[in-house]
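If you are new to this repository, start here. Below is one unmodified record pulled from the training split, so you can see the exact layout before writing a loader.
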Amino acid sequence: MTAYAQKTTEQNALTVLQAQFDADMKEVNAHIIANMQSDVPLIPQLANYLIASGGKRVRPLLTLSATALFMGDMARAHQLAAAVEFIHTATLLHDDVVDDSDKRRGQESANALFGNEASVLVGDFLFSRAFQLMTADGSLEILKILSDASAIIAEGEVKQLSVQNNLETTLEDYFKVIEGKTAALFAAACEVGPIIAGRNRDEVKAMRDYGHHLGMVFQITDDVLDYDPERSKLGKTIGDDFREGKMTAPIIFALQSANEEEKTFWRRTIGDKEQNANDFQIALEYLQKHNCLEQSFGLIKHHEDAATEALSIIPKSNLKSTLIDFIAFITSRNK
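And here is the target side for that same chain:
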């Protein structure tokens, strides 16, 4: 079963959140625009290019939602949501340089347009702006949460670099990569909400756990979609992870079941990155043979259930229900 078979009304969860927090997101955007200004023209030019290029602003939206869920101070949430978005945008700039990407959200990546040096340095600028917004908030606890997340993200990216093209990569290694590069910021974005509202430790942990598992769902889904033939029928690009030799869940499952002929194929294409024109199609056949996408969806289901369970201590509300629906939306999205 592919991600597209799971489309239900949960797909509307993002639309519901965007509508509910439309005014708040306008305030977040105002903070973003104000804080990416600089006397160096290239900085706002490059930052605006990436920030205005699309994206659903999921992470800042989670900060707004997690704050509103506990009736916290939304003015503080606006500023911290902007910090979260700056952290995310900085990592995108750095990621595209590391991956030598030439596309981001269907258009030229910032590094392809402005160069690697500018992308790295503007990414550093956005990280610095994020820390200025955090310190302006005045909470040492929130500063620690978001600064810790920034360090963990960097560790996750380095870990991914160390396992790339390494056929000995285990699922545990893979989990450590995505916990760092993706789940850490999701968790932090959700955790600051109840802290803004002055809630108890159990509620703070609940939102952190919700964000963590949501981030795991987000990244594993992305990794599965890169091998989902149904996605190509919608005009979406697939196969980038294969071409880059990334060790993601589908490939790890394929290697676990591979015979000698298949192991030779994976060593050549992933380990040595010696790929022919028809190799991606062969890879899809091997993944189908061993039900690798279905096994990967099993991982997703585990984290979906865990994210839902994390919210069990939160009192019932329409917003809580939407956040639960949002879990299923993450899996069914057409990104």
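Two things worth knowing about this chain: The first strand starts at residue 103 and ends at 104. The two ends are 17 Å apart (CA to CA).
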